[in-house]
Amino acid sequence: MPQTITKLRxxxxxxxxxxxxxATIAKAIEKLSTEFSRDKGIIFETFDWKRDVVPxxxxxxxxxxxxxxxxxxxIGLLGTVFGTPTRSAGSGTEAEFLTAYSQYQKSPExxxxxxxxxTATRNIFEVDPTQLSRVFAFRESLGPxxxxxxxxx
Length: 153
Prior knowledge:
The chain is of the alpha/beta class. Helix content is 40%, strand content 20%. The protein contains 5 helices and 5 strands. The chain is globular and about 60 Å long. The protein starts with 5 loop residues before the first strand and ends with a strand.
């Protein structure tokens, strides 16, 4: 008998200093997809802007990325680096989160938004205090929005 398959697209958003963590999450999602597709008929597909975005033109590079984002689950990650400012936000990750948050507010049943903060510090002397303070400010801004986040090592 044919099985109905549900495909869920997952976007993992982070500055480039968390490329390794993003890859680890993508690998775990791939394993989950294998299990869920057999048992539940659910396929998880990750979307990575570095791999999946087609070059284009916009008012700024973030516009090209944002115009191609289609996902059912948004996973945001920040550590000690906030990222590069865009015209619309303090960083690409913040712009992507704000888009996901706005979509969630309009239609909460169609999107899951998850946010995580890395507590790992590789070398304390390489931490940029300005970047870290921007991460702290962003983290503080989530509470009033009703966002529950989690830390990971």
